[in-house]
Amino acid sequence: MSARVSRPSLAAKGPGQRWAADVVAGLSVALVLIPQAMAYAELAGMPAHHGLYAAALPPLLAALFASSPYLQTGPVALTSLLTVGALGALAPVASADYVALAALLAVVVGAVRLALGLLRAGTISYLMSQPVLRGFTAAAAVLIVSSQLPAALGVAPAGEGILLRALRALGAPEAWEAEALGLSAVTLLLMMGGRRLHPLFPGVLLAVIVGVVFSASTGYAGPVLGSVPVALVPPFTVDLPWARVPELLVGGVIIALVGFADAVSIAQAFAERARRPWDPNKEFVSQGVANLVAGLTGGLPVGGSFSRSAVNALAGAQTRASGAVAGAAVLAFLPASDVLAPLPKAVLGAIVLGAILKLLDPRPLISLWRQSKLQACVAYATFGLTLGLSPRIDLAVLGGVALAIAVHVWRELSVDVRVRREGATLRLIPEGVIWYASANQFRQALAQAVAAHQDADEVVLDLRSVGRIDLPGALALKELAEALRADFRWRVEGHPQHAERILERVCPQLLAPVRDSHAPAKPLAS
């Protein structure tokens, strides 16, 4: 996900000034977090108030372990969609069983992230292929928008499948509810138009206020949020369906890794702009703790939010305490949360639409075709799998990752060998990786090139374009040299530095001319 965000201010400030700046930033984030958390809980198939539970203690405790002063934790759209994908086949949406499974899923996600952080395996977050992420994110955006269209239009189309219901809703304009449509339009106008006025314009907050006031004063007949359980603190419980953990492992691991990719990109982007260090291992720990707490307090899986992190930075956050302030503000709001009972669900749907519409930009996917057609095919296949396998989009991620690995392995199975004749010298220039899977093909390519130039006196193997050589690759070199040494002089040039040790152990005679550049090439026979 990308967006333009001005560089955070790093002017030196005293402790009092930094604290004041963090309070302002945290409160600014909370004004966006409260309605977003409820909207994303609905997206995840949960009653909206569970989003508040996931937005209170999780960001507060995550701030104690985070390394980024800007990253804001809580319910996010992509993780919510992954949640409904992982749980949709296990229990009826919004049922008590579903809520319990969502809490358990958050615990699984938290345990995976915490383990990766404690094992200092944070770099695993960089292993997700960008084409896979681009294809998945684009398709997920289509699904998220499709899931919110019926609510934004005030209709409840029949049928199964997110895309089918969205198409039916769009295809029946006569059923659109004028009041819901008007509220959605006002919400989008406040959110998207407000950003043009100022990045910190409280469009989401104003949309909620307008929706509540309109609903309460006019007796709005459309779907509303309804009674919100009032609590001083989120309900803590360890009474979860632990026996069903095996059913959630695949989905939990996928959410832990895919959902963390957003947090990594956010933290890294802000760290680069602010020229401040950050530690992915600490972020894994903080996100792990946040999810564990979310699961034990009736919430849902959480992640890092780009939009709220941007608000945090623009509002002048100085330290990670701003995240704690945001969580504390949501916690303080819980006893008064019933004030949102009249809020039309059309407003919540439009809030999700306003936050996700920018991800429908097709240009990142189109640009991949110009950069690499093979990688573009990986992205497009992941896009198609995500739409086709919905709601089991976790399986689509696995399919995309498997395809990316297959493409990588396929490309590394062969080594191209360029042949250049320089008088009586035959220069062979391999390009690629010489490893166990390509060693035999590499040896055959060299043998064919030599066989086509029987009149050459000397063979020079130029390894400057080789990415890596492992033991089978070195053995292939040795075997070919031994087979041809009666007819040719043979030497190696430009071997990769990392390969010197393995070549020295397997075929040191090939390196001797390289070490002494003034020595004449010698026959390989001893």
Structure write-up:
With 526 residues, the protein is an alpha/beta fold. The protein folds into three domains: 15-360, no CATH class; 363-412, no CATH class; 416-515, 2-Layer Sandwich (Transcription Regulator spoIIAA). It has helices at residues 15-43, 49-62, 77-87, 96-118, 130-153, 162-170, 178-197, 203-218, 245-274, 280-296, 306-314, 321-333, 345-356, 363-371, 373-389, 393-412, 439-451, 471-484, 500-506, 512-515, and strands spanning 72-74, 303-305, 416-422, 425-434, 458-462, 466-469, 489-493. The strands form two sheets. Strands 3, 4, 5, 6 and 7 form a five-stranded mixed beta sheet that branches. A two-stranded antiparallel sheet has the order 1-2. Helix 17 links the parallel strand 4 (425-434) and strand 5. Helix 2 runs antiparallel to helix 10 (280-296), helix 5 (130-153) packs across helix 6 and helix 9 packs across helix 16 (393-412).
